[in-house]
Amino acid sequence: MLKLPIYLDNNATTPMDPRVLEAMIPYFTEHFGNAASRNHPFGWEAEEAVDYAREQVAKLIGSDPKEIIFTSGATEGDNLAIKGVYEMYASKGNHIITVVTEHKAVLDTCKHIEKLGGEVTYLPVAADGLIDLKQLEAAIKPTTILISVMYANNEVGVIQPVREISTIARKHGVLFFTDATQAAGKIPVDVNKDGIDLLTFSAHKMYGPKGVGALYVRRKNPRVKVTAQMDGGGHERGMRSGTLNVPGIVGFGQACELCRLEMEEESKRISKLRDKLENALLQIEESYVNGNREHRLPHVTNISFKYVEGEGLMMGFNKNIALSSGSACTSASLEPSYVLKALGLGDDLAHSSLRFGLGRFTTEEQIDYTIEQVKNTVLKLREMSPLWEMYKEGIDLNSIEWAAH
Amino acid sequence: MSYSDKVIDHYSNPKNVGTLDKSKKNVGTGLVGAPECGDVMRLQIEVDEATGVISDAKFKTFGCGSAIASSSLATEWLKGKSVEEALTIDNMTIVEELSLPPVKIHCSVLAEDAIKAAINDYRKKQGLEELVFEERIH
């Protein structure tokens, strides 16, 4: 029997793997020590557990455990990396390059940097969501200290050419930071092969607990330093003060290990389901995939169903299927997804989009059900859509003078 | 955000979805909103010319559940009303009936605008002067 509701919003967060929970439990009660308590067994146990988790986390991204700074999640990692580099390398320059499709945690941090007097270049993306490497290189100036480009996008799943970006960064002696929140644990990420200087990711996007993440900070070739953004006990090599969230870190470590061991098989299985879903939904007239389909995470598809509105569409099945829309009908601004708009989608297509995020626990049965529900609802709403009627009558919607409101 | 039962009911079983013959002199059509804003409503009324009573009303809406429900409700309320009575339908009555949250009030405003636009279209076809409504900010 199919159990409802179905969760297809794995880019927002993932359910925790029971194996992760199991690893965490003893660290709430039995082994509750403070990892910084150096002089008794409670502290030693906690420290040992953190050290082990640090190795597990480091292994997933091919780094040295000493290069892992535990944080509260990717938002903190984004803030620490960008603000920390900006402060630490102030004598070198004040220019940062990023991309318009970055997560708000990066964009808003960059806005903050601008208020502090820094300079930020926001690179555009092509219609497929990828940046133009020539444009990136051309944006570098003598004052550039950091390039911040996400590994993979959270809305469309597009994977940026990370290795090419790092090559350019290296050539010009600029640090390269990547927000790998969506990529880590889903596709192979290796900080050395990829030439990454700083990288952040979060446990709850990869079947781990919420409230814990990591910032990778390179120690060799070059040695990178960030200025701490929180003052305190000098934990995490002085870069991030605050008592370590031991159970969270243990869970994060376990989640990383599971991803590392199971990624290959898992991504094959999930991408097959994703393709099945995508191909079936593309059979609906006037439906389009948003973003590059080749350079893309295995578990995401973002589809616009022209002439129906995303939120209205979701309402047809959101009691039974959880996913997300690029429509922002609920926000006060009424602005649809800035990511989709950056891809050049008109507001109408951006309003008509759904993001399907599959995951470790997605089954074929769930996908079959989703296909049927989405199809039916699109067809039903089109019968109700004046735009669909006009389209069918051959009326050019651009020829109509819409009353903007 | 969760929807009220009434919104869900109108969304699941919309009343009066459809199209009236635009070429008829006693049919008024109002098309409001814009695809860029995420909602477009088309509301049509058919008026009994002898009595001035709205004998039929139809809608088609591109938008969220609240927009669909607001227009569905509007068509229900329009039927059987005289054109003059129809002008008294206020967006806040729709808000109350459907328990729309503040972020969805614009859906009810759109429905009110659609009613007025349909009535004006009807008046124009009848050779009557178009009514001027106060501009409002959505």
Automatic annotation (TrEMBL), chain B:
Residues 3-126 form the NIF system FeS cluster assembly NifU N-terminal domain. One of its GO terms (molecular function) is iron-sulfur cluster binding. One of its GO terms (biological process) is iron-sulfur cluster assembly. The keyword Plastid does not apply. The keyword Iron applies. Pfam families: NifU_N. Keywords: Iron, Iron-sulfur, Metal-binding. NCBIfam families: iscU. A scaffold on which IscS assembles Fe-S clusters. It is likely that Fe-S cluster coordination is flexible as the role of this complex is to build and then hand off Fe-S clusters. Belongs to the NifU family. This is Iron-sulfur cluster assembly scaffold protein IscU.
